[in-house]
Amino acid sequence: MLHLKLPASWHSVLAEELDKPYFRQLEDFLIEERQTQTIYPPETDVFSAFELTSYDKVRVLLLGQDPYHDRNQAHGLCFSVKPGIKLPRSLGNIYKELKDDIGLEIPESGYLVNWAKQGILMLNAVLTVRSHEANSHKNKGWEIFTDAVISKVNDKSHPVIFVLWGGYAQKKLKLIDTTKHAVIQSAHPSPLSARNGFFGSKPFSAINSALLKHNQPEIDWKIRE
């Protein structure tokens, strides 16, 4: 049996999605996968982003694509890894840009929970993956669900900052009312593309400037375990 449970603040806005046929099929697929495969993140962490950032507290939405697929890395927040785990290269590039942008020394930990607790919904488009098989849960239903999440955040009355790194994330622009919300976009921080426009894009200061413009407190970008 699957034990995926959305926190109450999100359940109230996404209840319709959970009853749709595609989500039931997704749940059936995940039950079968977990019986025969190693799946990341652990079932208890699949909805971590929603647990750490309630719907009413979302101020920034940072969109990733697929969870990390090596052992003990993924824990339900895009780009983040568990304490004590070596930094993935994309996250290392995010930290390089963080230092160049606002002068924050590169931390050893890749555990980004402190960001989520301040109102950054750290959402992957696909929320599960097979061990060592990138994109193995692509097109199984998660994208329909997370598009609905993006649409619900777009429906919020106050301006939200959407951070879209790379072509995959930027395809979601069609779900966002850019007359109401701010969008920060650049190349992806992956080693394959970071030098094509991620480095030098200064997203962290841009996010804080946008928050201040809307009379909201800045994000404290320091990493705290």
From TrEMBL:
| Keyword list, A-Z | Cytoplasm, DNA damage, DNA repair, Hydrolase
List, for all copies, the residue spans of the domain called Uracil-DNA glycosylase-like.
51-211
Question: Could you say which EC number(s) this protein's record lists?
Answer: 3.2.2.27
Q: Name one GO biological process term.
A: base-excision repair, AP site formation via deaminated base removal
The listed locations are: Cytoplasm
Family assignment from sequence similarity = Belongs to the uracil-DNA glycosylase (UDG) superfamily. UNG family.
Protein name per its UniProtKB record: Uracil-DNA glycosylase
Report which gene this protein is encoded by. Answer: ung
